[in-house]
Amino acid sequence: MSESLLNFINGTWRESASGETFTNEDPSRRGSELNRAAASTEADIEAAVTAAATAFMEWSSTTIGERQTFALRFLDALESASEELSVLVSKENGKTIAESRGEVASALLEGQHHVRQMAVFSGETAPRVDSDVTAWEQFHPLGVVGVISPWNYPMNVMCRKTLPALLTGNTVVFKPASFTPWSGVFMADLFAKAGLPKGVFNCVTGRGSAIGNCLIQDPRVRAISFTGSTEVGRQILAMASTDFTRTQLELGGKNAMIVLADADLDAAVDATIKAGFGCAGQWCTSTSRVLLVPEIAEAYTEKLLARCEASVVGDPLDASTTMGPVAGPSQFNGIAAAIAKAESEGAWLRYGGVSNNSDGYYILPTVFDGVTRAMGLFHEEVFGPVLALSTVADLDEAMTWANDSDYGLSSAIFTRDMDAALHYVREIEAGMAHVNIHSGFKTPELPFGGWKESGFGPPENGRVGLEFFVERKAVYIKGQGQ
Ligand code: NAD
Questions:
Q1: Total structural domains in the chain?
Q2: Which atom from ligand 1 is nearest to the alpha carbon of 176?
Q3: Among 53, 119, 350, 396, whose Cα sits 20 to 30 Å from the Cα of 138?
Q4: Ligand 1: does its nearest atom lie under 6 Å from the Cβ of 229?
């Protein structure tokens, strides 16, 4: 692999068809250039889809055991490269080195789970259809799958999609986010090192609006697994529907956390810091709204503000840093605008705002208090380290406010009251419900996806994360006698 980032198509490293490149910037150093990546065009997508379509026949005929072997070789290569990869993710995304190591560990955990569950992944068998009819459900791979990933978890999200797609016998064309092409190309190199046959996995870098559309609209692409904003997800769904291309869309969130009067406040504050400011608030399952009952509102807020004051915002590779920069200029400008809007709407800024350190795209952990349901900050995804605190009368009002959202990805409650916890679990309109655990917690055995405008199509992870990538066939066999 050369210094400049190339596309990986049909087992070879190539410049984009146009020869054009774009700058990959380190967000902790404004105006820097980590490297340049291929600015691909429709011709590159065409070549990648052709390679994947050609490779499909042979790859789909491999046994499950052979695919598991390739996947395990890939995971071994990933584990060996984990420190190099973690540094790279911190450099191009801005998350702290501890957070990048956590991302790689999560990808390994999920990948190993997918390999294991493949061993027992088969369809239903009908008990006894008729006296001499045997029947079962058989799975078939779809064909070429397009994987489009975001920059916030640049390697974990692509693994969560790509490994299930490959294990079930599909071939893949992957488009990394334009903020994080290096992680994407690095992953392609690991697939090459794992000895995957040519064309089975292809990686094409470039702007979503320039190449995403032709990937989605190519009739040979049978499914799109996308993670990103609700706005782009909606466009993808419209494009994919023309050819009935299957979609798995993991989208935005505005996740609420409820804190009741009997909660362990230190644990609640810990969870808020972790899920509100981890990765500079740029996780889809971040906590961004906190609903507090009056009995504990001020005590919780004082503890939270003390933790904000102790935070260290700076160089993501410095071990003492607790929060790095946000991912790039458009992220920075969007978050700064959301902060200004919240102030103009009358929310009380109790901590944070834009940092004085202008070396990189730094925003401080930011806490707004007195946020009402009429304010934009209550409803709009900021996707940054900005918390909206609101005081509500009781659990009933907390539930009404929590569910007053177009989104429904994750959520949490802190309480020792089992009845209150079970009421919340039953009533919350979200794909993930956490009791006394932060909203970003997950395990690969269970589905990862959202309700309402946070997701469309089957979620990732769990058994359903494999099922998305297969066609089903019901088989009926009747003997003809001796
Ligand atoms: P984004 O929607 O701007 O981009 C996501 C990907 O889509 C990128 O690779 C981008 O290049 C590509 N893209 C952009 N326009 C496209 C188009 N017209 N056609 C095809 N592809 C296109 O999102 P982002 O800024 O990278 O990520 C942040 C968003 O992702 C947030 O809204 C966040 O909540 C969401 N997210 C959701 C999850 C989840 O699992 N639900 C996880 C991570 C991030």
A1: 2
A2: 9
A3: 53
A4: yes
